[in-house]
Amino acid sequence: MTGAIHQPHPVLRDYLAGPMVGYDITLSADQVHLGVPRATATLIIAFEDPLDVGWFGERESQKLWASASGLHLFPALIRTHGLQRGIQLQLTPLGCRSLFGAPLAELAGHSVDLVELPRGLTEYEYARIAEQTEWPQRFAVLESLLLNRLDAFSMPADIRRAWRLLCHGCGVAQTAADVGWSRRYLNTRVHSEIGISPKQLSRLARFSRARTLVGEGSSLADAAYAAGFADQSHLSREWHVLAGQSPTKEQEFPFLQDLQYPDTAA
In 3D, which of 72, 74, 21, 76 has the Cα closest to residue 51? Predict the structure, then answer.
């Protein structure tokens, strides 16, 4: 399992939630990755073979060279066919709007080909990235394309603040009060822009915090307490529902979103 990471240009900080992750994995042909729900959209640019992605509990899948998946409350199934090679990004609501011309709500619960979005990645842009043979060059071309396509779209400050508060553990009632809305209006605005309710967004963010803590070495009990779960059993149940398997099983095989290569950062 090899790859690289790249911290994007500071200008992209509000648009991307984390680094660009390049991955190159050889597996058994029947191996399946699980795409875990997050509070951000996932963008994948695949090389060599298209991404074969479906959803937990469903038989159908799509094969996509460049895809974006919105927020969801169940894992995606990525059939590897023995090889996974590509770049993954996490998009914020502002990033989805400004880079690709669509609200996160349009992607909620499914994956789309990037060419289908209002300002989607073109075949020429994809080819420029894919023709590169080294990670630094791939990242450089992708970053340049993203910087050049930034739109002047300005998401209202209140909905951006609501998203940030919910993602950082603020309760629904407190978030509504902070931005000066009723809980009903908060629900309407968040669902319209992001595609899920404030309560569901808070749930995804809490689960992500717990998974991060476990990945950093915390016990399930400590992670559950720190992330705001009632107890370890509560966290374990959420893990089964949202990740499709137990925390112990996850540690045996990493999720695509978790692949990090600090020794090969580009």
Answer: 76
